[in-house]
Every structure is written in structure tokens, then in C-alpha cells.
Specification:
This is AIG1-type G domain-containing protein. By secondary structure, this protein is of the alpha/beta class. It is built from eight helices and eight strands.
């Protein structure tokens, strides 16, 4: 499956006497060593190290096989001590250093385990240079001597490589080559010729075009649009989260207010009940007092009536008595 570049392909006929190459890959995959072998000269510093020696893009130029060959060695991502943004800024320089643009981008991958970081390295470059970059990509499997030791050919190795690497190979039209930087001078020279032959095939496939600065600018604009879309999406998600939290807060406030209202109602009802009980008690006391007063009046009336009902004896002057009713 061919990845069609959405960027304009601006270039004229390729000068067969000139070849411009950019090296990319994770630290420890032989970028610098492969660049040196292509140039036939030790232009880039190499050593066995877990951290990147190359922290800035370096340009090496050599006339070899009657051709002017330019190679740019780039820093490795994730292990330079630099931030990803700093590395990206540095790598972008490779476009101007190979002006008017590179014919080939060589991705170095060790024979063996293809790591997530290596996959992310390719993804990182594609994000910045656009998917059209795959049209200029050639995978170089370094440490090919391991294949010889294991009596394995490159075709069988690729057939059994991780799916993530197979996807990259498919996107770059299955362009790959085994490479052994430990070969002797004569054999190493033949290997370099094979590599340049692969690059020339790719250049012909691209109709003599190279990756241009205009393509990068278009890819950068596309990436900026993607970043803006991501930022907008994150902003909308943040706004939804804030709204959700506000709604939850309002619910809690409503629940608290409702609970407080219920508590106040209970307190008011309790106060009313206490007041009613107090009034009932007071009324009962007043009723009993009134009843006592009624009873006392009845007793008084009864006593008065009894007193008035008794006959009164009056003694007359003649000594006789008479009763008065």
C-alpha cells in the first residue's frame, strides 16, 4: 500500500551525481556508524553507549563512487538528555542542511527486539514530517551479522518481526536492507553500493523527487491543525468536567438546603408541639381552678341555704316562745 503524500512534490530532475541522505533512529542502532560507512570516512563520532553521543545534527559530505554524497546524522530520541521538543527542533535542521531536501531518510533498526521507543521514534517523525515521509523512507537493519550467526536470512527475519515494524515496512513499500558495519573494507564497500542502489531505486520510484522544505512546511501546518484540534477537544472535555462538577455541587447544595429546611421544619413542628402542650397544660390548670371555684360556690350556697332553712325561736315577754320561719 503506497502512502500518497498530501504535500506538494516540488523538485526538478534529480542530479545523478548527487545524493542527500538523513539518518534517523534510536540511540544504539548504528546511525552514526552507518553514516560513516556510507561516506567511507569517520565523520561522526561513535562509541558503545546507552546514551546518545549526537546531540546536534551533523553534516558529512564526501565524493564517492563519482557522486557527491551528503549524510546528516541526527540525535536519537528519548536518550539524549534533551527534551523531545529540543530534539525535534534540532532534527528539523536536517531539511535545510540537505537543501533543497533529502532524497532518502534511512531508519536504522537493530536486528533483534524492536522496542516501543523505536516505534514511537518513527511515529514522532511522521507527526512532524507528514505521512509523505514514508515515500522517502528505507529501513536499514543493522547488526546483520547476528542473522549470519543464527543462520537466518533477512526475509525470514522480517516475516517474524513484530506487527508494529511490519506496518512501518508496509507503509514504506517494504524497502529494507540488512547492514553489517563490522565487515572488512572491500565487503563493506560492496554493501554500501547495494545500499545506494536501494536508495536510487527509491528515487526513481519518486520520479526523481526529494523531500522538500515546502513539504515540511505543509506537514507542520497539518500538525498545528491537529494540535489545535486536540487542544480544542481537551478544552471541551475540561469544560464538560467543570460543568459536571458544578452540577454535582449544585445537587449537593440542593440536598444540603433541603436537609436544612427539613431540620428547620422538624424544629418548628417540635416547637409548635411544645407550645401546644404548654397551652393545653395551662388550660387544664385554669379549668381545674375554675372547677374548684364552682365547687366552692356550690358549697357556700348549700351552707347558706341550710342556715336559712333552720327555724328561729323567739321568746316573748310573757315567757312564751315562738318559731320564725
Amino acid at each position: 500500500m503506497e502512502v500518497e503524500s498530501k504535500q506538494p512534490r516540488l523538485s526538478g530532475a534529480t542530479d545523478a551525481a548527487e545524493l542527500r541522505i538523513v539518518m534517523i533512529g534510536k540511540t544504539g542502532t548504528g546511525k552514526s556508524a552507518t553514516g560513516n560507512s556510507i561516506l567511507g570516512n569517520r565523520e561522526f563520532k561513535t562509541c558503545l553507549s546507552g546514551s546518545s553521543i549526537t546531540t546536534a545534527c551533523q553534516l558529512g559530505i564526501k565524493t564517492r563512487f563519482n557522486r557527491k554524497i551528503s549524510v546528516v546524522d541526527t540525535p536519537g530520541l528519548y536518550d539524549t538528555g534533551m527534551t523531545t521538543e529540543q530534539v525535534t527542533t534540532e532534527i528539523v535542521k536536517c531539511i535545510t542542511m540537505t537543501a533543497p531536501g533529502p532524497h532518502a531518510i534511512l531508519l536504522t533498526v537493530n536486528v533483534g527486539r524492536f522496542t516501543d521507543e523505536e516505534h514511537d521514534t518513527v511515529k514522532h517523525f511522521v507527526n512532524h514530517f507528514g505521512e509523505g515521509m514514508y515515500n522517502y523512507l528505507l529501513v536499514v537493519f543493522t547488526r546483520a551479522d547476528e542473522l549470519v550467526k543464527n543462520n537466518q536470512n533477512i526475509t525470514d527475519y522480517v516475516r517474524g518481526c513484530p506487527q508494529s515494524l511490519k506496518e512501518i515496512l508496509e507503509l514504506c513499500h517494504n524497502r529494507y536492507i540488512p547492514y553489517d558495519n563490522t565487515l572488512s573494507d572491500s565487503r563493506l564497500e560492496l554493501q554500501v553500493k547495494d545500499l545506494i542502489g536501494k536508495v536510487d531505486e527509491m528515487v526513481n520510484r519518486n520520479n526523481g523527487n526529494w523531500y522538500t522544505n515546502e513539504m515540511y512546511e505543509e506537514a507542520k501546518k497539518l500538525m498545528q491543525r491537529r494540535e489545535e484540534a486536540v487542544k480544542q477537544k481537551l478544552k471541551e472535555e475540561e469544560q464538560r468536567k467543570v460543568k459536571h462538577l458544578q452540577d454535582e455541587f449544585d445537587k449537593q447544595i440542593t440536598l444540603v438546603e433541603k436537609k436544612q429546611a427539613e431540620q428547620l421544619l422538624v424544629q418548628a413542628n417540635k416547637a409548635n408541639e411544645d407550645r401546644v402542650a404548654q397551652l393545653q397544660k395551662q388550660m387544664e390548670s385554669e379549668r381545674r381552678l375554675a372547677q374548684q371555684m364552682v365547687d366552692m360556690k356550690k358549697e357556700h350556697d348549700k351552707a347558706l341555704h341550710a342556715a336559712l332553712s333552720r327555724p328561729v325561736t323567739v321568746t316573748t315577754g310573757g315567757g312564751s316562745r315562738c318559731s320564725l320561719m
